[in-house]
Amino acid sequence: MGKAQKYVLLGDATYPLQDWILKPYQEDENLTQRQLQFNYRLKRAHSVIENAFLRLKARWQILLKCDDCSLELLPTLILACCILHNVCEAHDNPFNEEWLEGTEPTELPKPCQPAPAAMEDGRAEQVRELMCQYFESCGEG
């Protein structure tokens, strides 16, 4: 869209809108078709991420019991699992769907109530609007 953007994290409605947290528009009858399309695409992207983490935990089940390692080690452990996953894929060692049987999707803790409006960043609406325009320009999908 002609404007450089930095990376953003995907959040849900309970998180405050920030220029680094992309969240859906509040669901109500006033949403435009464009905003509904944005929410749909954000939800799809979020489900892809959840599925990727589920598969990562299924392949590398040490990630299911990370409570027995130090917090300082955790980012390195996750990165190592991601790298090993890519090595396996590159060498035609495909993911075995049976591994998913012992892995349940876990609900990560998140706020129960939406963040107060005072926590939202006014500039972040510009980022969300830009992404909304981008999704609209990409067509259906």
From TrEMBL:
GO cellular component, one term: nucleus
InterPro entries: HARBI1-like, HARBI1_dom
Cofactor: a divalent metal cation
UniProt keywords, alphabetically: Hydrolase, Metal-binding, Nuclease, Nucleus
Annotated GO MF terms: hydrolase activity; metal ion binding; nuclease activity
Localisation: Nucleus
Domain DDE Tnp4: 5-86
Similarity comment text for this entry: Belongs to the HARBI1 family.
Protein's recorded name: ALP1 protein
Species name: Piaya cayana
Gene that this polypeptide is encoded by: Alp1
